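Sync notes, pocket subgroup
Present: LS, DG
LS reminded everyone that the earlier model was apo-only. Rerun requested with manganese (II) ion included. Inputs:
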Amino acid sequence: MTYRISDSLIAEDNEKRAPALEEDYAALGRQLERRGLDIEAITQKIAAFAVAVPTWGVGTGGTRFARFPGGGEPRDIFDKLEDCATIHQLTRATPTASPHFPWDKVSDYRVLAERAKALGIGFDAVNSNTFQDQPGQKLSYKFGSLTHASKAARDQAVAHNVECIEIGEKLGSKALTVWIADGSNFPGQSNLTHVFDWYLESLGEIVARLPGHWRVFLEHKLYEPAFYSTVIADWGSSLIAAQALGPQAFCLVDLGHHAPNVNIEQIVSRLIRAGKLAGFHFNDSKYGDDDLDAGSIDPFRLYRVFHELINAAERKAPNFDPAYMIDQSHNVTDPIESLIVSAVEIERAYAQALAVDRAALQAAQEESDVMEAHRLFKAGFLTDVSPILAEARRRKGGAIDPIATYRASGYRARKAEERPAVAGSSSGIV
Ligand code: RM4
Ligand code: RM4
Ligand code: MN
Ligand code: MN
């Protein structure tokens, strides 16, 4: 048996923190009541919220220069799931993991599904990987995958995506996320029209193999690793593709995949309007696809995104069923701590956005009362909703202060003993 944090440790830690939480929760409840808001309704929504953890996120990430792994790193998908389960145990917000293939390949998926079930973890969208060559792979992806000029390379990339769907079916997934690194570094390197046509052709073959209840999430990214053009560079290309590919295709928004200063919440609103929002890869960024922890740089942006999501939920927008996933690379922190904090920060943005008097906001908008509308909009962001988040966790058996409890458990040190480092582990991204 490997080490797991005991529920009694969480209960003991919570007991110490409960009196202060009760005081803060009651005070916040009165504050919200003065704004015509019911704290209990918000707490229930937070308690029902869930975000998937990326299996690649529990390993230490790297930059294009180096990777500095910490002790007790997960060595394979089984270790990764154990870490995912620990994050969920403390936060009660991350009941699923989003696997990446071939990084998470195993010989018997029944064993993997059983292990996940025993840990209380389900599987979210499966991610394909045609941005790297794998040992023994016949054709290289150096010049592209699903949009390679060679039909044989495209076929190989399609076959890999089909294999991911087959694995996902065994794991109980219901979606495939496709992000390709395809693009060009030099003007003239590729024909901008042909590559998009090939994308549609390849994705069409993948969609044809999707089970009826599955969705495919098309992930756009502005640049990197291609620096002149990326085949699916933006939400426009993604939406054209999703519309051409039919009702099972949707557009995934990774918060780090846009030009600086782009109004992401407006993109979200447009994709919802088109009935094509797949969901999110949450992370934060300062310059590009930085994969920093959600809410660490621009929590107000995250808040603005959630404002649009609540608007859509309230008006019951058709086809609105976003998948929430984290996509981060933890280079200098303990990945478990980063994922705990990120899950909490995502919930925070949601709770803050719920703490807006929407009827008053709508009235101010209708009156064109700009400053009043802005003040009402921002009131939620300015509210410290921490007691709501802690209370939601406590009610579900999670930790009032998940980082403190995690540190007190000594989990990482125990894993360092149990998991001797292995060369070439699939943890993290370099
Ligand atoms: C850095 C910087 C340094 C170079 C390394 C490899 O970005 O430009 O000068 O030595 O890359
Ligand atoms: C990409 C993209 C994908 C992720 C890879 C590892 O930039 O965000 O979603 O799977 O990184
Ligand atoms: Mn992503
Ligand atoms: Mn990315």
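DG: Residues 15 and 74 are 31 Å apart (CA to CA).
LS: The chain has a mean pLDDT of 97.
Action: DG to write up.
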